[in-house]
Sequence to fold (157 residues):
Amino acid sequence: MKNKVKIVNIGLFLIVIIGLGSGCTGNQNQFATNNDDAEIVKVHTSKPIDQSVSNEAKEKVIKEKEVSGVKAVNTDKELLLAVKVDQFDRFRLKNIEKKVKSDLEKAYPNHKIIVSTDSKMYLELEQLEQKLQKDKTEKKTLKKEFDKIKSLMKEKA
Fold:
């Protein structure tokens, strides 16, 4: 009787080990991310609102492996940038934010850089980019919306 219980226990143990082992050998690259599919929308306007600084900053930031999306808008002296971070990397939001900000401050010393990893700021900047893309924004309204988003970003910080 003891031998049968021992054999059953060993059999169950082997089944559990095989089950766990086969469950862990699935597609190892399932969660690996590649920024090749990350999309950057460059903002081009026909009005005298130059967005070349924000376009260049987006190209630099999207190369970071943790970043899956970037939205940015600039004025003559300021640059607002919102970063979308991959799910697993959300544990390191502050570090990512500091790294991106320091890199951009080195690249654009004449601009005041404000970086956010907040998804609301990402959506706000996306809406402002779309307005700029459609040429529906005058310089005064750009400044007004820019200041509104800037104050929201400072609130979150």
Residues 85 and 92 are 9 Å apart (CA to CA).
